[in-house]
Fold:
Amino acid sequence: MNHSNIKSHDQGKTNGQMNCPNCEQPIAVTFESLLVAGKLVCKNDECNTVLQLNRANSGVAINAIKTLKSRLSDLGH
Ligand SMILES: [Zn+2]
Structure:
């Protein structure tokens, strides 16, 4: 058993991740960040890109949500 490769599954609330469009660092995607905060924030201190989840500029966010939903449906089986 090698648990070091499945960190994302151990974090509970983290349902997926995407890469920052600016610096390509992984950003955790959770329902909380998507639905409550309404934005995703890059944790790279030198980047700090904020992805606002509005319809005008949400292509990245929509892809993140699609990824999240597909992962959740996988878990549902
Ligand atoms: Zn970034």
In short: The CA atoms of residues 24 and 57 lie 18 Å apart.
